[in-house]
UniProtKB/TrEMBL annotation:
Signal peptide positions (record): none
Domain ABC transporter: 10-258
One Gene Ontology biological process: L-isoleucine import across plasma membrane
Alphabetical list of SMART domains matching this protein: AAA
Protein keywords: ATP-binding, Nucleotide-binding, Transport
Domain of life where this protein originates: Bacteria
Pfam families, A to Z: ABC_tran (PF00005), BCA_ABC_TP_C (PF12399)
Name of this chain's protein: Leucine/isoleucine/valine transporter ATP-binding subunit
Gene Ontology MF, one: ATP hydrolysis activity
Gene: livG
InterPro entries found in the cross-reference section: AAA+_ATPase, ABC_AA/LPS_Transport, ABC_transporter-like_ATP-bd, ABC_transporter-like_CS, BCA_ABC_TP_C, P-loop_NTPase
One GO CC term, this protein: plasma membrane
PANTHER family reported in the protein's UniProt record: AMINO ACID ABC TRANSPORTER ATP-BINDING PROTEIN, CONSERVED COMPONENT OF ABC TRANSPORTER FOR NATURAL AMINO ACIDS-RELATED
Amino acid sequence: MAASATAVLLDVKKASRSFGGLKALSEVSLHINKGELIGLIGPNGAGKTTLFNLLTGVYPPSTGSIILGNESVGGMKPYRINRKGAARTFQNIRLFTAMTVLDNVKIAFHQHAKHSMFTSMLRLPNHFKGEDEITQKALDILKIFNLDDQSTELAGNLSYGNQRRLEIARALAAGPKLLLLDEPAAGMNPNETHDLMNLIAWIRKEFDLTILLIEHDMSLVMGVCDRIYVLDRGMLIANGTPSEIRSNPKVIEAYLGQEA
Ligand SMILES: Nc1ncnc2c1ncn2[C@@H]1O[C@H](COP(=O)(O)OP(=O)(O)OP(=O)(O)O)[C@@H](O)[C@H]1O
């Protein structure tokens, strides 16, 4: 097997995060290999979003390390981690609702564009060339998400399901190596959810992505993920293939505990 097939993209070592007296994450260690699609599940309050927040720089870890590629990114500012190749979507959609669908995606491209502030301010030819290129790239991404015919619509006017898709399109525009999706199917109906999962599996291949996915819908996670990590009360209680996780007594107990 080629070395790159098993190269580790994300390596989290004993990451902890406390909020006052509450230990939201306790010494969590996990790794994701390049190209994997990994699920992150756990009952409410387990620490899933907190882990995403550490991975994307919203909070620094209280202790422990986070290595992305070959670099330690724990505690870096979000925009720097984004530039290092990690992009995310949020549980609560965070689009610029008063801007067009196209501009929402173009903004993400601009953050990574090569043309300088100088050429933009002076409206030099390179600015327009860069702008045309970015518009075209943004439209190409919108097409993948079947949103190109709504490119001039305000983002806030899209249906809920389409707003979720636009969030993923925007994250992709940042050209990430690692895509972090926080409940991308929340609020979608079963058909939309099914379509979205197929799309996620497709973009993973098409864009050579590594994906970490938080999702509450078990059948959905089991259907698309290579491996799954399970958090409960801030601790990692299991890691394995979907079938291993499905029959893991600790996982069953954690979820039954939630329903009791
Ligand atoms: N900024 C914060 N300040 C204080 N407590 C926080 C903060 N962020 C998270 N927590 C707490 O940390 C714990 C883990 O929360 P987190 O949102 O990470 O869980 P989750 O697994 O994503 O839950 P859910 O599935 O309900 O979204 C919870 O007890 C939460 O109240």
